[in-house]
Amino acid sequence: MGRPGAADMAKPPTPVAQMSPGHAALLDAFALSLATRPAHTRNAYLRDVTVLFSMSNGVAPQKLTRPLLMRAVATLHARGLSGRSLSRMLSAWRAFYRFLIERDRSLGEDPCAGIKAPKSPKRLPSALSPDEAARLVQVDGDDALSRRDRALLELAYSSGLRLSELAGVTVAACDLASGEVRVLGKGSKERIVPIGAAARDAIERWLAVRSGHAAADEAALFVGRHGRRLTPRAIEQRFAQWAVRQGLPRHVHPHMLRHSFASHVLQSSGDLRAVQEMLGHASIASTQVYTHLDFQALAKVYDAAHPRAKRK
After folding, report:
1. Options 186, 225, 233, 292, the catalytic residue
2. Residue 281 annotated as catalytic
3. Known active-site residue 258
4. Which of 162, 200, 229, 238 is catalytic?
5. For a FRET experiment, which of 111, 113, 175, 276 has its CA 20 to 30 Å from that of 220?
6. What pLDDT score was predicted for residue 117?
């Protein structure tokens, strides 16, 4: 039997129930080779290889060529699979072909080598509007937990901190007199970020009662009921709970306030480099994703201000 042609891969896929005995035996052998992998990885790989068999319509995988596999990827993409899903699927296919080649060295090269999944469009960050952000941080109440949560939310929005940075910030790192906080970001890189007036006030109110709730040797700014550092998971829960209490119509997580900080500062200033430094991004490309959030506003400023923007 010769190599299959493009028409073979274009036929409707073979249902799993109709898998040939040869394919079923290969799948069982592949499953045994994955015995040391985590169960979720093993199951995902077997599902993805089953898709490969379905796309091949009974043709032995050893006979599939790179162009035919590229056609299969294109077909799956046309059916609605995202680039991310296809990238994961290709990883499973490559693992399967490595398994085949180890069993039979005469097969030569992996036909999946060099095949790339189509790029998925970048997910745009979800941000609160300025009014929504203001409503979220407006935590009323004079009890210690309300003071703490108000300071937590205000600092997140004021300084655009990551979740890990919020959990890791210490009392000593906050210089309220100068309005700055020192945080340890990705790659253990330290940076100094400004703290807004509202956040400074909220932190001062929390610090006035913190000593009555924090363990004597606890350095963390934000502590829980047992006097120890508030965990990232606990911070996420506080954000979600306050979003519900304040009547916001969607789930709110700490990174959403970071996105909101970036987009609102960028909209007000247009200074991408300053936002990059405050966020702690190593590359300006990471910061540029926020420009979509205020593009219309910036376009209006351009139209009004640029001498070449106005039509004669």
Report:
1. 186
2. yes
3. yes
4. 162
5. 276
6. 86
Within 10 angstroms of residue 25's Cβ, the number of other Cβ atoms is 11
Catalytic hit among 23, 258, 259, 264: 258
Of 37-41, 151-155, 255-259, 295-299, the least confident: 295-299
List, in order of start, the domains of the chain with CATH numbers: 6-107 (no CATH), 130-304 (1.10.443.10)
290 is catalytic: yes
Catalytic residue (one of 23, 148, 255, 264): 255
- Please indicate whether residue 189 is annotated as part of the active site: no
Q: Which amino acid is at 228?
A: R
Q: Is 123 assigned a catalytic role? A: no
What pLDDT is attached to residue 217? 95
213 catalytic per annotation:
no
